[in-house]
Amino acid sequence: MSDQLNIAMIGCGGMMGAHVNGFRELWNHDLRNFRIVACCDIRREAAEAFADQIADFQGTRPAVYTDVETLLAQQSDLDACDISVTHREHHKVTLPCLQAGKHVTIEKPLAITMRAGKLMLDAAAQSGVKLHVAENYRRALSERANNWAIRTGRIGEPWMVFWIDAGLRRWYWTWREHRMEAGAGWTLDGGVHFADLFRYHIGPVSEVYAVTRAFWPHRYRDEKDPSAGLIDVDVEDAMIATLKFEDRPTVGQWTLTSACLGEGWGKRAVFGSEGMLDWGMGVRAGDVVLSRGELEAEFLDSLSEEEREKYFPCGIFDTIAHELKEFIDAVLYDAPMETDGVEGYKAEAICYAVYESAATGRPVKTADIEALAVEEYQRDINESLGLV
Ligand SMILES: NC(=O)c1ccc[n+]([C@@H]2O[C@H](COP(=O)([O-])OP(=O)(O)OC[C@H]3O[C@@H](n4cnc5c(N)ncnc54)[C@H](O)[C@@H]3O)[C@@H](O)[C@H]2O)c1
Fold it and tell me: What is the Å distance from ligand 1's center to 252 Cα?
């Protein structure tokens, strides 16, 4: 491997815009050990527009492709792929890249189902290439500071986690509203970030008991103009779960819902034996009262030069730039990855434990989800993809 990673961006939609910004941020800080050599999207105009944006800062324009097979066949200098496609396409796009010996970073969640994700882990292992999940939330200053507060015992032993987001959304969010395209609703799509934070801040979740509901069977095509009509949807809009953590007494209450008329509310907090950490307020522990800003400032002050460079390289605070740098360094220098494919698989297992528990009406162990031993909810999705 040379000291430059040649990357193809596959899936030039909404989230990939943030990846362009992340690459630009690295480039502008003289972190230039990569080249974007190709942009690929089934919508040619999207790939062309991204190629133009890349050319603006990189100086060279990536080649444009409309399918992965042609990209892999023709782009002979390709080392790695940065993939950000719709959930149903994750494994379909990633598997040929891995099988062609390309390193892959893929947007969360790893795959549309656990079975599809397992195929990706196996293919990466077989080809001996890196598989990385573009999980960015834990890289934010706020989450690094939260993690530091918990790790250094500011609130004692974590006892109870409350993660409650209750609000209202009735507008139509394209493919995300359809199980066969997205796998599931917000508990998977956004929830996998939160599941990753549970693992990062507290540790592995061992068991989940959950109930899900789809209260609104449709969304407004245009929320400002109800006469534009309604579109049928089939993902959940309410989820209430109890989480048990592994090898410790910690329990969690996890609620995500977008079906609350009137007034939404929320609480993200960990209560421990010595105090509490609140995502809004900061730390309350005995006489210690730290606002969020004070907590983050204290955390930054505590960092050695080396730690500061590790978390916020060159003073960059963009979490997408962080995850892209982690991937590039892992491939070029065999540096460790915080969120590799296995970590992504385990975070996703917490989400699927929710859906499988709701489908079976009983508590579900995450180990059984990882082992593909419970697939009641996922079965028809897997069948539709020819995965069983
Ligand atoms: N990390 C985050 O905070 C975050 C935020 C939003 C989305 N995401 C994730 O990013 C991914 C993409 O989401 P999005 O919001 O950008 O969706 P999107 O619909 O805006 O973009 C998806 C793109 O993929 C393209 N595409 C679909 N199938 C393809 C294929 N076979 N080959 C090439 N291109 C293909 C589409 O044409 C589209 O341009 C999802 O996995 C989503 O969960 C992550």
Answer: 30
Task: Say if residue 1's pLDDT is above 90.
Answer: no
pLDDT for 14-49, tens place per residue? Answer: 999 999 999 999 999 999 999 999 999 999 999 999
Which residue has a Cα nearest atom 19 of ligand 1? 13
Site to probe by mutation for ligand 1, drawn from 48, 81, 93, 107 as the one with most ligand atoms within 8 Å of Cβ, is: 107
* Statement to judge: residues 214 and 161 lie in one domain: yes
43 lines ligand 1 (CB under 6 A): yes
Angle at 86 between CA 81 and CA 90, to 5 degrees: 50
CB atoms within 10 A of CB 272: 20
User: Half-sphere exposure of 276 toward its Cβ, with a 13 Å CA cutoff?
Assistant: 13
Q: Which of 313, 348, 375 is the last residue of a domain?
A: 313
The reply to whether ligand 1 has any atom less than 6 angstroms from the CB of 348 is: no
CATH number at residue 211: 3.30.360.10
Which atom belonging to ligand 1 lies closest to the Cα atom of 46?
39
- What pLDDT is recorded for position 123? 98
Q: Which two tokens stand for residue 231?
A: 């579109």
71 lines ligand 1 (CB under 6 A): no
Strands (E), the chain: 5-10, 34-40, 63-65, 80-83, 103-107, 131-134, 158-166, 205-213, 218-220, 230-232, 238-245, 251-257, 265-272, 276-278, 282-285, 288-290, 364-365
Judge if 14 and 154 occupy the same domain.
no
User: Which of 12, 71, 84 for mutating ligand 1's site (highest number of atoms within 8 Å of CB)?
Assistant: 84
Tell whether 346 is covered by a domain.
no
